[in-house]
Amino acid sequence: MTSGSASCSGRASRTDLGDRYLLLLSCVLLGYALLGKGFAYLGFPPIFIGEMTLFAGLVVLLRTGCLLATLTTLPSLALAAAMAWVVLRTLPAIDSYGFDALRDSVVVMYGSFAFIVIALLLDDANRINSILRYYGVFVRIFIPTIPFIYAFHRYMGEQIPKWPGSDVPILQSSGEITTHLAGAAVFALAGLSRMRPLAVALLSATAVMASAASRGGMLAFVVPVIFAALVLGKVRALAAVLVAGLVIFAATFAVETAVSDARIATSTEERSLSTRQFADNFASLVSRSGEDTEGTKTWRLEWWTIILNDTVFGPDFWTGRGFGLNLADADGFQHRKDPNSPPLRSPHSVHMTILARAGVPGLGLWAIILVSWSIALSGAARAALRRGEAEWAGLFIFIGCYAASFVINASFDVALEGPMQGIWFWCLIGFGTGSVMIYRCQRNT
Asked: Residue 2: left if φ>0, alpha if ψ -120 to 50, beta else—which one?
């Protein structure tokens, strides 16, 4: 992908500290993807593995000497402005809400990882190849392992030991794994790795299981993969997999409906990993469906309407309601949550979370980050395609679709508000920004 050991600025990497940190960060991301919230609780409360990795990364960022260079793009400037705005909205709330204010602010403050990754790439452009190599290892570990971890957590969750002093099991997988399944699928479609038929089967089966538990997870997998197939001209290969999958799904659905009765789920946690539940989730996207799926859709829309009336059309237009306040308690939606789920703090949409807590200015900066980053990445992908640079184009499409999967999932669930998805997302934002900067630099020279 890149050549030479020097950075884009012509300055050789000063130390291998950045390489060691990149390996550490890759291992942490693997832990989040496999073990979920269970891995996030590794550490010494209130400092967990995510915070430790962040503090170490900030040291590495300063050591690279690339801090100012990371601020030379519009997405980076918008992110820096958004982080500054969140700090201004968080500091006054610390006296009243304490650690809760800091915990709520990470939805944007984890953006620090974006600057860390950008600096690592600017310090040594060859780290793009290292990241791709580490991600290839990640896929080879994740795909054959996650189906069993996910099923074990769903069916044997009561037997999983918990972290001392908490109700969090040391292994907790969720429907959010569809983001990584989408990433792995696009990674192969983009020609960055080869996926064996068994891996394709495992990936598809896990995607169906996770989609049965989460409609947002279903969209987070389907939309980016189909988009990547269309852009990369891999529609025929995707169609072959879909036809085979539909035949297996139809046969399984027929057997399931013939030998078992329908069971109405009263909460998300009670949704079964079945073809019937998958079909119900899919139907709920375009029409009315079962009691459970319609119920969760209704209270989300009601809550989002309250937030819009309070900010866009109300008194908190400029400031939002700040960080630390439990929005579910304040808006009277705590009793509407799934009875088997932890207490709610934020609405099931990252966009509404940012709007409610940081006001319209915060939401505007968030939109600028997403739009400007997408434009930069798509522009670089088009340029690479015109120049016949298939590897670069595949890289940009992979990063863009992967990050889009996180945004889609976070639009319907509490995802980027925590480290499991938040740190992954902001690392992808940094990876995309840094890669575009390096590509432009190499193309111009």
From this structure: beta
Angle between helices 419-444 and 99-109 (to 10 degrees): 30
Check if the beta carbon of residue 347 is closer than 8 Å to that of residue 416.
no
Q: Is residue 406 part of a domain?
A: yes
Give the count of alpha carbons within 13 A of 159, CB side only.
Answer: 6
Residue showing tokens 């089967």: 201
Asked, for residue 12, whether it belongs to a domain, the answer is no
Give the separation between CA 343 and CA 434, rounded to whole angstroms: 38
CA–CA gap between residue 336 and residue 350 (Å, rounded): 19
User: For residues 306 and 313, what is the distance between their CA atoms, to the nearest angstrom?
Assistant: 10
pTM: 0.89
**How many residues in the chain?**
445
* Residue range 33-63, pLDDT digits in tens: 999 999 999 988 888 999 999 999 999 999 9
pLDDT (average), residues 418-432: 97
For residue 256, what are the domain limits? 17-158+175-444
CB 116 within 8 A of CB 58: yes
Strand partners, 6: 12
**CA 192/CA 133 separation, integer angstroms:** 10
Taken in order 209, 210, 212, 217, the sign of the CA dihedral is negative
Total domains in the chain come to: 1
What one-character-per-residue DSSP string does 174-209 give?
A: -TTHHHHHHHHHHHHHTTSS---HHHHHHHHHHHHH
